[in-house]
Amino acid sequence: MKKSVLNKFCEFEKKGGVFPLLPASFKYIGTYVSISAIVGLLLVYYLGDELRDFYKEVCMHFVLIGLFLLVLSRDKNEDERTNQLRYRAFAFAFVLGTGMLLILPFIHMLLHGFYQDILEWEYQSFFFIMASYLFYYLMYFNIFKKQL
């Protein structure tokens, strides 16, 4: 009988296997992709045309791809402590991100009564949720590394 991919992954994890990460050079690639996509977002905002929404979505996805490359790339000096910090940062990012997603609707309702014209951003969009989780992870991981 064939083993499923999930069973193979569980056996790999039981043996002490670590999630495979990208090489450290991908940090530079992820940074370049994210920054160039943010510059692209600014250009789309100021030089908008009939395809403005399309270019906005493409740039936002490239920001997420760049952040994801940053998250999945290993450090130059990767060791067991770094892996523990990585797992700890993922846990903190999950808790903070989920807490923010639970609290933001109440803040939005409260502020919407005062500033109806200002609050037009969508806090429950795919981009906002993913970018906040990835950003929280990167923030906590770097804070934890500096504490070593």
What does this structure look like?
The protein has 148 residues and is mainly alpha-helical. The protein has two domains: 53 residues; 73 residues, no CATH class. It contains five helices and no strands. Helix 2 packs antiparallel against helix 3, helix 3 runs parallel beside helix 5 and helix 4 packs across helix 5. The longest helix has 33 residues.
Which structural class do you get from the secondary structure elements? Answer: mainly alpha
Reading the helices and strands in chain order gives: HHHHH
Unreliable parts: none
Number of strands: 0
Net shape: globular
Q: Main beta sheet: strand number and arrangement?
A: none
How much helical structure, as a percent, in the residues? over 70%
What is the distance, rounded to the nearest whole angstrom, between the alpha carbons of the first and last residues?
Answer: 47 Å
Overall pLDDT level: 83
Tell me the radius of gyration. 19 Å
Number of domains: 2
Number of separate helices: 5
How is the topology of this model organized?
Blueprint: H1 5-14, H2 26-46, H3 52-72, H4 80-112, H5 126-146
Helix pairs in contact: 2-3, 3-5, 4-5
Can you tag this structure with a few keywords?
single chain, 148 residues, mainly alpha, 2 domains, 5 helices
